[in-house]
Amino acid sequence: MNTDTNTASKPLAVITGAGSGIGAATARTLxxxxxxxxxxxxxxxxxxxxxxxxxxxxxxxxxDAAAVAGAVREGESLYGPADLIVNxxxxxxxxEVAKQQADEWERMFDVNVRGLLHxxxxxxxxxxxxxxxxxxxxxxxxxxxxxPGHTVYSGSKFAVHGMSESLREEVAGHGIRVITIAPGxxxxxxxxxxxxxxxxADYQAFKDSIEVLAPQDxxxxxxxxxxxxxxxxxxxxxxxxxxxxx
Length: 246
Hints:
By secondary structure, the protein is an alpha/beta fold. It has a single domain, classed as NAD(P)-binding Rossmann-like Domain (Rossmann fold). It is 43% helix and 16% strand. The protein has a seven-stranded parallel beta sheet, sandwiched between helices. Strand 1, helix 1 and strand 2 form a beta-alpha-beta unit.
């Protein structure tokens, strides 16, 4: 990876949770479009394995606000101001409220809500100063409707939807777009975080019964939304496998 100079002609894009799944697919998509990248993930070796040009890879936990902000400053010093952040880092810990451990609730809100806010806060002041930018928040269909065993996860993703809508009202006058991407079931590692083996097995059986989304499907939607003219905001994109009825 070349991190010495910015040879790309397009502005910097920041992606959290970039080590696998939707994040890695989005990194490939934006790199192919010519953007230099700041890729953040806890497993930095996963990012480095992507071997993308004009890319700075950093091991960062999004729950650490200072680490996120520091990485953004470093990326901007190499590649110029961040024009896009894709807040993709997230955890899904399925469980019934009566049985689930409280630390799993806390982990989901720490990553899915606080971590997302840390990403926004790291780039937003600069975007406001420049009068342009795009914030893309990766939520879920579970942020629009509920499912059994998803109570706290859905709560965290409903929060993403609510914060995105309110943030859009705050920053629209500054020329900044806020976009929510709400995928249905995707073939990623997200389910592996769940510790309730029965719920995990049920969800896996559902995924196996249909042709779920591939990470690249979601990355293509992100790329499409970002490539619209700056005056156009696709406020929310909901996508799911055709065979996913709910």
